[in-house]
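Q: Focus on the shape:
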Amino acid sequence: MFGDLSGMMDKLKEAQQKVEETKTRLNSVLVDETSADKKIKVTLTANREIKAISIDESLLADKEELEDYLIITLNKAIEKASKINENEMAIAAKAGMPNIPGMDMFK
């Protein structure tokens, strides 16, 4: 029984290590999003950290328009980054999960 428990603990540690490695790797995965008219471009990591924002000068004259563009474009970029992040983290967690009866929801 203790042999199984020890093996299970090793698998859980392995899963945790895979998740941490995936988090680190996702810092280098860049997600770009551009507004429909190409006036704003944002770049995020797959961990949803903003790396760059480029704004067309024509938007600088109208504060409200600029704010609207930023909100829409950032939300789209965050949504893309979140999907990548969730998929990669699920794969990493699933790969290291021990075979525990009744815990097949990760498969």
